Amino acid sequence: MNQTGILSAAAAGTFTIGDDLTVNRMGYGAMRITGQGVWGPPANIPAAFATLRKAVELGVNLIDTADSYGPAVSEELIAEALYPYPADLVIATKGGWERPGPNQWTHNASPKHLAKALEGSLKRLRVERIDIYQLHAPDNVISFEASVEALARLREQGKIRHVGLSNVTREHIKRARKIVPIASVQNRYSFADRESDFIVNYCEENDIAFLPWAPIGQAKTAHEAITRVAQQLHVSALQVALAWLLQRSEAILPIPGTGSVQHLEENVAAASLELPQTAFEMLSAVHPDYLSLRD
Question: 8, 63, 107, 243: which could form a disulfide with 273 (CB 3.0–4.6 Å)?
Answer without folding.
Answer: 243
